[in-house]
């Protein structure tokens, strides 16, 4: 039976959940960082709109606003880094507790696997989420303040700025991707025994592949939601600074953030599927 391992894992999952309840240093640190972001955001929203005709007052106001916005960006990265784990685990737990899941053996097995391997999935997702927020929000910082406030919003100027910023972050992006690819391979080795148990219990290779497809696809979707949540938290103070500088917030550009988010996790999902697809072919050849 595909679900035969569920009861065996239940005791270990319960013990892990009890341990998680006893220690949540990441949750506390992340909450403090986000509380700092909230306080600074409130300070920006109660800040008076500067008079653009008074050059000295306007320049001083914008300088102080940017000095507040940059720490928000850094604190948000730190906070999200700590909060990825509780957010990811919380979403997985909510999905597993859905009554309708128990009616579908494949879904039940896939989400049971996710819950059992959640720590490994978090380790895979965290660097992708953090680097996407780092690059995406930094680009948004320039696009939605400098471009809108200064009025340099031509397509050529926009593409040139994006290209330069991506070039600056090219090295950490490549290093992070290499780390993720290596981690995916290690994760595959770690879960090989689990797949073998399903296989020798009578599950066909195509069933196992669909199981992994659901598991990996759900993990990627959860990661996308967490990344977009972090982008939204940064957008609130960023748009306020843009407004204080006289920019039109309705012309704010979030295309780069969305493209980076979905592109990063599409690559993440594709690498996972490639590795499991190769495993599927190997298993079929073994049967033949």
UniProtKB/TrEMBL annotation:
- Membrane-spanning intervals of the chain: 27-46, 66-84, 128-149, 161-187, 216-239, 259-280
So which domain of life are we looking at? Bacteria
What keywords were assigned to this record?
Answer: Membrane, Transmembrane, Transmembrane helix
State the name under which the record lists this protein: Uncharacterized protein
Name its species: Latilactobacillus fuchuensis
């Amino acid at each position: 039976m595909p679900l035969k391992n569920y009861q065996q894992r239940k005791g270990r999952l319960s013990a892990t959940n009890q341990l998680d309840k006893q220690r949540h240093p990441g949750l506390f640190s992340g909450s403090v960082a986000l509380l700092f972001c909230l306080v600074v955001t409130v300070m920006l929203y109660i800040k008076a709109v500067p008079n653009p005709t008074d050059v000295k007052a306007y320049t001083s106001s914008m300088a102080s606003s940017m000095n507040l916005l940059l720490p928000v960006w850094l604190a948000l990265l730190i906070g999200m880094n700590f909060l990825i784990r509780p957010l990811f685990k919380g979403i997985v737990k909510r999905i597993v507790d859905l009554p309708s899941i128990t009616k579908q053996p494949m879904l039940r097995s896939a989400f049971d696997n996710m819950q059992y391997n959640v720590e490994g999935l978090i380790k895979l997702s965290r660097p992708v989420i953090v680097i996407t927020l780092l690059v995406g929000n930094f680009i948004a910082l320039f696009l939605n303040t400098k471009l809108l406030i200064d009025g340099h919003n031509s397509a050529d100027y926009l593409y040139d700025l994006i290209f330069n910023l991506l070039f600056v972050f090219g090295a950490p992006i490549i290093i992070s991707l290499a780390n993720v690819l290596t981690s995916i391979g290690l994760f595959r080795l770690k879960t090989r025994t689990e797949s073998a148990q399903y296989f020798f219990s009578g599950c066909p290779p195509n069933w196992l592949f669909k199981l992994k497809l659901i598991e990996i696809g759900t993990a990627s979707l959860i990661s996308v939601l967490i990344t977009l949540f972090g982008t939204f938290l940064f957008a609130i103070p960023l748009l306020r600074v843009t407004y204080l500088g006289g920019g039109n917030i309705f012309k704010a550009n979030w295309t780069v953030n969305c493209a980076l988010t979905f592109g990063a996790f599409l690559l993440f999902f594709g690498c996972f599927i490639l590795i499991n697809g190769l495993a599927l072919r190997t298993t079929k050849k073994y049967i033949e």
